[in-house]
Structures are given as C-alpha cells and as structure tokens.
Amino acid sequence: MVRRDHLERAVLESLWDHPKGLTAQEVVDLLADRQLALTTVHTVLDRLRAKDMVLRERDGRVYRHRAVQSREELTAQAMLSVLQDSADHRLALSMFVRSVSAADADALRQALDEPQAGSKTSRLGRRRRP
Amino acid sequence: MSAELAGRTLMPLVVVALLWPVPVLLSRARWTSRAPKAAAITWVVYALVTAYTLLLTLAFSADSWAIAGLLLLWMLGRLLQTVYTLRGSQRRHQDALAMVAIYDPELRVHVVDDDRALAYCLPNGAQPMVVVTRGCLELADDAELRAILAHERSHAQNRHDLLVTGFLAWQRIFPFLPTSRVAADAVCAVTEAWADDAAAAHVSHDVTLRAIMRLGSGVPGGLDGVGWQPDPATMARVRRLLDQMPERRRYAAGL
C-alpha cells in the first residue's frame, strides 16, 4: 500500500523534472515501475491542483500539467512562513529560537515587500523556475 | 438583600481584578519560571475562572442574560475561528513539507533542505511534527542538536500547541485588552521554559544555552564575540537557564 503523500510527491517530482509540462499519460509512463492506473494519476493531479501546487493547460485534446512552484521555491516559501510566524502566529509554531538573525530578517523583509511569489525567491538568491 | 448588594458591587470588582491586575501579577511572578508546569496549569485555571466570572457577573449583577449569552457566543466563535484558521495554515504548511521534507528515521525528524538554521514543532492534530532544516543540522554540533530535539519533542509530547492555541484565542476574544496579550506571551514563555527544562535534563544546561545562542546567532564554531541581539523572550530564556546552572559549571561553560 503506497501512502497518498508519497504518490503525490512522486508525481510532483516528475513534474519538477519536466518544466514544460506533462500529460497524465506521460506521468503514468514515467512512473511505470509503480504500475499506476491512468485514473489514479488523474486523481493525484486533481489533488495537487486543489493544493495549488499544480496547474493545467489545454494542449490540443489533452491537458498538460505543470508545477506551480519549483522545489526550491516551495521550500523557500515554507521556510519564509516559518520565519514570519514569529510576527503573526498564523502557524502557532514552537520555534527553537524565535529571534531571527539579521540576514534572515533582511531576506524576510525583502521577500514580504514583494507582491509576487515568483520574485520572492530570486531575491533570496535562489534559482528561478525556467 | 445584603448578599445581592454585595454581589452587585463585589462581582464587578472581581471581574476587573481578573481582567487587569491578576494577569499582570501572574506574568511577573518569580515562581512561574521555576515551575513551568504549575504555571501552565495556573494560566489555564485563570482563563477559565475569568471567563466564567465575567459571564456570571453579566448575567446576574447586570441582570442581562442576553449580553452574557452574546459574550459566550463571541468567545466560542473566536475560539473556533482561531482553531479553524490555524489548522488551515498548518495544513498548507504540512502539504508543502510532504512534498519537500525528508523524514530521518534515526533522528525522528523531518528535514528540510534550506540554508537557514531553523528548528520547530508544527502542530498536527494529535501528533505534532518536529522539523529541522539542513542549515540547522550543519550549524549545531551533536550535543546541541540533541538539546534542540529534546526541546522540540517536549513541545510535541506535552501538547504545548493546545496551550498556545488556547491563549491565541484568548487574545482574540479580548483584542482591546492589553492583558490578554500579556497572558498569551506569558503562556508562550511558560511552554519554552518547560521545553528548555526537558532539554537541560536530557543534555545539560550549558549545552542547551549554547544551542540557543548557536541558532539565534547563526554562527558556527566557538561563541566568543558573537554579535547577537536576542529578543526579550529569548533573553529571558538565557537568563533563566543561567540562573539554574550550578556556579562551577557556569564558569566552565564560559558564559
């Protein structure tokens, strides 16, 4: 029995490896060793879309799916929400040390000033999605 | 008749005391830092008694069941709203972690590939998750890491998220009352003291202190001349750990 998260992660990872997008059938072929049914992949892609991690575009008669954020962007955004939590308590985390070092605070301030999520990570010296 | 009069004059005074001086005094009390568990229980009792007294006073002394009922609805609504919104953002964070974090079965933590040194406990229903970044694993030495993980596991095992969430709701129930914030901050400090005690018991006071300075400053190696300005809450934790250290070991740690 494969856990749901693991399957979603495997699908998202194959989308990260193919920035130009994949159809559901291509995902099935890429993950051939898992022997997934096409409907399973459709369900997983729908779930990832519900989480705003994947978007799809019509390409002729099929849908092509792309990752909304690269792995680096998703990581950076998650960590920014952790750093930001000392200010707004939206996650109610228990952080080991809440005081943020000067460099982190700088990166945070710049990132939070930015209106677009896309430019957030480039300011942090991270790679942009091609 | 006289009891009724006393009720009408005394009860509002009790309510005012509970809403203003009591939380201020409780947050400044010295014993709370020595006994964080007892302090946590006291804060919970304080909140329950205050809410109960406030509702009763409105109902009986002010003779207004309608206002008391509305206040009760407001309290429950704010509590539910706080739980609901926190749960939503925690889920989203978890969704992201499920895609990027790697579980380390040896350390029993989720590791995120990020340069910034962070360690935290994420509320997650009955099983809070302990998360550290690669930056944290690289920055802290083995003993410091043990202290950090013992601290975060104490948060997870003792369900400190319930306390923190409850008092965040308390703060939102009385947004115009400065002491509701005092209470919420004090409860946060109590949970940190509780977890620091667990770390100190698991490793030692000086290693726990070193770990706090390490992650706070982000500086590896020796801690001589580290330019670090901790926020007041972290400074209070540092002072508290120093106070608890036996004299000899305090000098041995060079702090």
TrEMBL record, chain A:
Residues 111-130 are annotated as: Disordered. Belongs to the BlaI transcriptional regulatory family. GO terms for biological process: negative regulation of DNA-templated transcription. Keywords: DNA-binding, Transcription, Transcription regulation. This is BlaI/MecI/CopY family transcriptional regulator. It comes from the Bacteria. GO terms for molecular function: DNA binding. InterPro entries: BlaI_family (IPR005650), WH-like_DNA-bd_sf (IPR036388), WH_DNA-bd_sf (IPR036390). Pfam families: Penicillinase_R.
TrEMBL record, chain B:
The keyword Thylakoid does not apply. Residues 97-167 form the Peptidase M48 domain. GO terms for molecular function: metal ion binding; metalloendopeptidase activity. One of its GO terms (biological process) is proteolysis. Binds 1 zinc ion per subunit. InterPro entries: Beta-lactam_resp_regulator, Peptidase_M48. Its cofactor is Zn(2+). Keywords: Hydrolase, Membrane, Metal-binding, Metalloprotease, Protease, Transmembrane, Transmembrane helix, Zinc. It holds the Pfam family Peptidase_M48. The chain crosses the membrane at residues 6-26, 38-59, 65-86. This is M56 family metallopeptidase. It comes from Kineosporia babensis.
